[in-house]
Amino acid sequence: MKKVFIIHGFEGMPNGAWRGWLMQELEKQDIYACALPMPTPEAPIKQEWVDEISRAIEMNPTDDIYLVGHSLGSTAILRYLETSDQKITGIVLVSGPIIKTMNRKIDNFLETPFDFETIKTKAEKFVVIHGDNDPYVPAVDHGDICSKALDAQYIVIKNGEHLNGSAGYHVLPECLEVLNSIMK
Fold first, then answer.
1. Which residue, 62, 89, 93, 126, could crosslink 152 as a Cys pair with Cβ 3.0–4.6 Å?
2. Which residue segments constitute the domains of the chain, with CATH numbers given?
3. C-beta of residue 34 within 8 angstroms of C-beta of residue 27
4. Are 123 and 146 in contact (CB under 8 A)?
5. CA 10 – CA 97 distance, rounded (Å)
6. For the chain, the helix, strand and coil percentages under 3-state DSSP, each to the nearest 5
7. CA–CA dist 122, 124 (Å, integer)
């Protein structure tokens, strides 16, 4: 069975922005989709978020698992993949930081460089989606580098900003389209 777990970002909520819409669209296709409520989103701790992702995946050992992360949720997915033995079918990373940003509250996720060589072995397919003018996580410093490091498909959304609710993103058809393409 195909299952999609969606990971929100810093100060996010499971059903915020486009995540609720994505779950509804996937459910219309009889694909199980669940947005995980990450612990303490206002003061996130890397290991707690990695453990929450791990818990959800370990409960579904025989399913085809797809992970979708937004912002810090993308970063948490990458940290999960560095240490996991579980093979994931597909990963979609939306507006994810991979180096320190102005937000000191997420530094514990970004203290060490990512082991992209290890991460690449943990999933069959990677996609990176980023707004070309993201004010918090600039594409040139994050999306461009992450997509190259993962040999990922890279989708740049013109004037997408941080691809969150504040930027007006309550639907994200590019995410649904790419998920459908990698689930075939």
1. 126
2. 2-183 (3.40.50.1820)
3. no
4. no
5. 11
6. 35, 20, 40
7. 7
Over residues 27-40, the mean pLDDT reads 97
pLDDT at 150: 98
Measured between its terminal Cα atoms, the distance across the chain in Å is 13
Token pair listed for 139: 């594409």
Crossing angle (nearest 10°) for helices 173-183 and 19-28: 40
High-pLDDT (> 90) share of the chain, %: 99
d(CA 128, CA 154): 5
Residue 109 contacts residue 75 (beta carbons within 8 Å) = yes
Q: Determine phi and psi for 7, rounding to 5 degrees.
A: -115, 120
Distance CA 109, CA 73 (A): 10
* d(C-alpha 100, C-alpha 103), whole Å: 8
Strand order in the sheet with 32-36: 32-36, 2-7, 64-70, 88-94, 123-131, 153-157
pLDDT digits (tens, 9 = 90+) for 70-111: 999 999 999 999 999 999 999 999 999 999 999 999 999 999
- Phi, psi dihedrals of residue 130, rounded to the nearest 5°: -150, 145
Tokens of 22: 């994505």
Confidence of residue 45 (pLDDT cuts 50, 70, 90): very high
Q: Which residues pair with 125 in a beta bridge?
A: 90
